[in-house]
Specification:
Layout lengths: L4 H31 L6 H19 L2 H11 L10 H17 L3 H24 L2 H23 L4 H9 L5 H26 L13 H15 L6 E5 L5 E5 L2 E6 L7 H19 L15 H15 L3 H14 L8 H8 L16 H16 L8 H13 L25 H21 L3 H5 L4 H10 L9 H9 L6 H13 L1
Parallel strand pairs: 1-3
Antiparallel strand pairs: 2-3
Length: 501
């Protein structure tokens, strides 16, 4: 029986929503694996996720679905790429075409290796034992190389993985942007070091019970706009945000009893991701118009709330009374002392705890490693030495153990290779958004000092969140600002802030 293009599109939307239902079930299992799963349950969890990965892949690669998407892509429904139908068809066709190239066997093996790899990573990090994790990483890298080779079709294999997270980007397209940023950062760091030599850094010291940290964080998250009716806060070895359904977005953080700001800024970071996901159109859940544009845009939301909001003097002046209420030992602290403490600049080993000036240098280390790793020019066995050399080259320090070195990030353990550049893109985009928001709303820091976060939150929802994948990342920047992306807003922000500090 012949059906119209319109009927075909309705069937497409129904199938996409069915697939998203299966994916959300997998997300629940994945969230549980990262937060609650006992170690002995890892092997069976890997089998559960392997089964779901195969079922999802089978539905995505149904020959009729592939054929229908090709027909719809050439129809009037897709003629306007920014219309509801055009955007959905465009992104679903891209996703379907990529998945159709992969054998089910590879998809299932990746799902299994990722679960076992993440569990092995947790144990290896806890025991500072890279040798325990290395065989799992070798397996994951081999599978990702196979996946990348299929997608690359003769082009650079690393680009095929980067394109998963940042559609349309390549290592070559990022190089000028990253070079501009890297040169500017080294200039700012050299200038700062020459002017602050001999100055003692202000540090937060004390004993901060995790329960009190969590209570403070919950209070702050509620005020900046996290909807606890549609989300929750938990603890994990590595902070993350996961959307398990249209009204279920979960974040995690981790607590250090000697420094409450690690949980605070980790929580604000994941809140930024959650705010984006809670701001996506619920009615489009399961379709591209209900999904983030890219990881770079997603990351821009987390870095904006963590740094441009959270580390601002206005924000800190607002939360300091709350901090003192939970931690009376800090009653003597002034806003200026706290501002200097949380914006302390120093070469450090841990990416997620790095200051704003050095953070992107941590990303450069990873970017320089994962590209040759996936292209076969660097082996897993060579990674510890290459990691240490990279940190010495970019930050002037070397890790003394694996926990603070190669084992600090979970990404490669879960198969997320090609992911790290999106962090630096997120930093660049975050400064672009903040600059534009101030042009349209006025100075934001006085609002933060008064506890007014609604204007910025609603600006982000109106300009970014509500569109889903309607626009590509660079296109969105141009639509909002009238210009192409550049690292200049980020460098200007950093120069202004740290010159004053």
């Amino acid at each position: 029986m012949n059906i119209t293009i319109e009927q075909m599109y309705q069937h497409l939307c129904e199938e996409a929503r069915w697939i998203s239902l299966l994916e959300s079930i997998a997300s629940v299992l994945w969230w549980d694996e990262r937060t609650m799963l006992p170690p002995a349950g890892a092997a069976y969890r890997a089998e559960q996720l392997r089964l779901l990965a195969g079922m999802i892949h089978e539905r995505w690669t149904n020959p009729q679905l592939v054929a229908n998407l090709e027909s719809m892509s050439a129809s009037a429904l897709a003629s306007d790429p920014h219309s509801d139908t055009g955007a959905n068809i465009r992104h679903l066709n891209r996703q379907c075409q990529r998945k159709a190239k992969l054998p089910r066997r590879l998809v299932e093996e990746l799902a299994t290796a990722s679960v076992l790899g993440q569990q092995a990573w947790q144990e290896a990090r806890r025991n500072d034992d890279f040798a325990h994790f290395a065989p799992h990483l070798e397996r994951i890298v081999a599978l990702k190389r196979e996946q990348a080779a299929i997608w690359a079709n003769g082009k650079p294999v690393y680009d095929a993985l980067l394109d998963t997270y940042e559609p349309g980007e390549t290592a070559a397209s990022l190089a000028p942007l990253f070079d501009q940023l890297s040169q500017g950062l080294h200039r700012l760091l050299n200038d700062r070091n020459s002017r602050t030599s001999g100055h003692a850094a202000v540090r937060i010291r004390g004993s901060f019970p995790p329960a009190a940290q969590e209570a403070l964080l919950r209070e702050i998250l509620a005020q900046v706009g996290f909807d606890f009716h549609r989300g929750r806060l938990d603890q994990s070895a590595h902070p993350f945000c996961s959307r398990l359904g249209p009204e279920d977005c979960r974040i995690t953080t981790r607590y250090d009893t000697q420094d409450f700001t690690k949980a605070l800024f980790g929580g604000l970071h994941e809140f930024g991701h959650a705010l984006y996901k809670q701001g996506l159109p619920v009615e489009w859940y399961g379709l591209p118009l209900g999904e983030p544009i890219s990881l770079g845009i997603d990351e821009s939301q987390s870095r904006l709330w963590e740094n441009l909001v959270g580390r601002s003097r206005g924000f800190l002046s607002h939360i300091l009374p709350k901090v003192k209420a939970h931690f009376p030992e800090l009653n003597h602290w002034s806003v200026d002392e706290m501002y200097r403490a949380v914006n302390r600049v120093e070469s450090s080993l841990i990416r997620v705890e790095a200051d704003e000036l050095t953070y992107n240098l941590h990303i450069m280390v990873r970017f320089e490693l994962e590209k040759p790793l996936i292209e076969g020019e660097l082996s897993v066995g060579d990674l510890p030495q290459a990691w240490a050399d990279g940190y010495e080259r970019h930050l002037g320090i070397r890790p003394k153990n694996f926990r603070d070195g190669l084992l600090q990030d979970i990404h490669w353990a879960g198969g997320a290779i090609g992911y790290f550049p999106t962090y630096t893109l997120g930093n660049i985009y975050s400064a672009i958004w903040f600059q534009q928001a101030e042009l349209e709303l006025g100075k934001l820091e006085p609002m933060f000092a008064r506890g007014e976060f609604g204007p910025l939150r609603e600006w982000l929802r109106e300009k970014i969140h509500r569109h889903g994948k309607r626009f590509d990342a660079r296109e969105l920047v141009t639509r909002i600002t009238g210009a192409d992306r550049t690292a200049e807003p980020l460098l200007s922000y950093l120069e202004s802030k740290f010159s004053e500090l």
